[in-house]
Design brief:
With 152 residues, the chain is mainly beta. It has a single domain (24-141), classed as Immunoglobulin-like, CATH 2.60.40.1890. The chain has one helix at residues 2-21, and strands at 25-34, 41-50, 56-62, 66-76, 82-86, 91-93, 98-101, 107-113, 122-129, 133-141. Strands 1, 2, 3, 4, 5, 6, 7, 8, 9 and 10 form a ten-stranded mixed β-sheet that branches. A hairpin with a 5-residue loop joins strand 4 (66-76) and strand 5.
Length: 152
C-alpha cells in the first residue's frame, strides 16, 4: 500500500515537473458565473501562467456550453461609458509571466447559454494558444464567488 501511494505521488510529481520544464501553459483558479439562473450569458475567469522562455498568445476559446464563446474585455469610451468588446488580437502571455482574466477586465464570454449555470457544474473549455496550441481546462461554476472588479 505504501509503495503504491509512493509510486502514485512520484508519478504525479514527474508529470507536474515535465509540464513546467516543457514550457507549457498552466491554468489555475478558474471559475465561471452568470447573472442568475435565467441568464443567457456567462463569463469565466482564471490565472494563466506561461512557464516558457518565449511569450505566447491566447488567440481563441471554445466551449459547447454556449452558442458563442469569445475573449472579451471592458473598454471606456470618450464619454466615460464602459462597454464590453470582443478581443480579436488575442491576449499576450509574457515569458515566465502570469496573466489574470478577471471580472471587469479581460475574460471569457459565453453567449447564448445552452443550459443554466449552477454552482458546482463543470464546464469543459478549450483555450487556443499561438505557440502552445490547445489547452483543455475544466472550469467550475461558482455563482457565490464575489471578488472585487479589476481591470488591466
Amino acid at each position: 500500500m505504501k509503495i503504491k501511494l509512493f509510486i502514485t505521488a512520484f508519478s504525479a510529481f514527474l508529470a507536474f515537473s515535465s509540464i513546467l520544464s516543457a514550457g507549457q501553459i498552466v491554468i489555475s483558479d478558474a471559475y465561471a458565473r452568470s447573472a442568475g439562473p435565467l441568464a443567457k450569458a456567462g463569463a469565466a475567469y482564471m490565472k494563466i501562467m506561461n512557464h516558457s522562455d518565449e511569450s505566447d498568445r491566447l488567440i481563441g476559446v471554445q466551449s459547447d456550453i454556449a452558442k458563442k464563446t469569445e475573449l472579451h474585455t471592458h473598454l471606456k469610451d470618450d464619454n466615460g461609458v464602459i462597454r464590453m468588446v470582443r478581443i480579436d488580437e488575442g491576449i499576450e502571455i509574457g515569458s515566465m509571466k502570469e496573466h489574470k482574466l478577471v471580472r471587469g477586465g479581460q475574460h471569457i464570454m459565453f453567449m447564448g447559454l445552452k443550459e443554466a449555470f449552477k454552482t458546482g457544474k463543470i464546464i469543459p473549455v478549450t483555450l487556443f494558444f499561438e505557440i502552445s496550441g490547445e489547452v483543455g481546462v475544466e472550469i467550475v461554476v461558482d455563482q457565490d464567488r464575489n471578488e472585487k472588479k479589476h481591470s488591466h
